[in-house]
């Protein structure tokens, strides 16, 4: 079997359909401010990739969309929630979408574990027309609207389907009509197309990392995934958030070698740990020097993203080259 033998509805194989009359396959066609995805060539979405094509009805049209990636346990949910609050402090209407079956992305915003989209769909036997928006959207701190996509039962489905259904529901209920910012908080490393599904919606992808081998190794793989999606979608690499790291020497070396750039640096601060224990964002903690430093980093990051960060020209390393590169003397 060759790539041309595979179904055209799946990225990774099949002969691409002819473009519709009047369509444009340039990377910047469509909206002059944000660009539009190229016409999808199934064979371009990653070497040997098998991907479900994005339904055009699920495209997020008006809001700026940011997808937060990084190694599991690196602090993506903390980063996403505090960045969402920073956007809201700058006067923006924000929706945060957690993309993890643990559904704990938004608990510092809502002070609880909210039901997931999959939970509420199951409760109505997967008849979405029976749902109200308050069944799956919850208002969190400072007006950030919170959604937990959830995931299929373990070993039985794809997270990409869940992301698609979540966006479709939000559009059907018109929540995205007046939204300025959407933040996707995505679980762990990118190992399959389901985890990469938010990249089909995002304008910029941000990578959270620490100053250690495992985190940088994951960052390298994530960069590769983003570049694969960028061939068919508008997503581009925005930059790096150094987290839980007093030093950044290894991050800096890797950035210099690959073309990445650090946009914010959150050192290992105990107040961040304490804020999670209190089910609170950093913007709700008592004033102190470390709190103000962390808040300032998130506000500066939000301002930079709103101003329109330039996409980075990144060249990820091969695994073995990275292994050798990160060795110590």
What attributes does this structure have?
329 residues; alpha/beta; eight-stranded mixed beta sheet; two-stranded antiparallel ribbon; 10 helices; 32% helix; 15% strand
Low-confidence stretches are 1-40
End-to-end separation in angstroms reads: 47 Å
Mean pLDDT: 84
Outline: globular
Sheet-strand content, in percent, reads 5-15%
Question: Can you offer a commentary on this structure?
Answer:
The protein is an alpha/beta fold and 329 residues long. It contains ten helices and ten strands. The protein has an eight-stranded mixed β-sheet with strand order 5-6-4-7-3-8-9-10, sandwiched between helices. Strands 1-2 form a two-stranded antiparallel ribbon. Helix 6 links the parallel strand 8 and strand 9. The longest helix is centred in the last third of the chain and has 19 residues. The radius of gyration is 19 Å and the shape is globular.
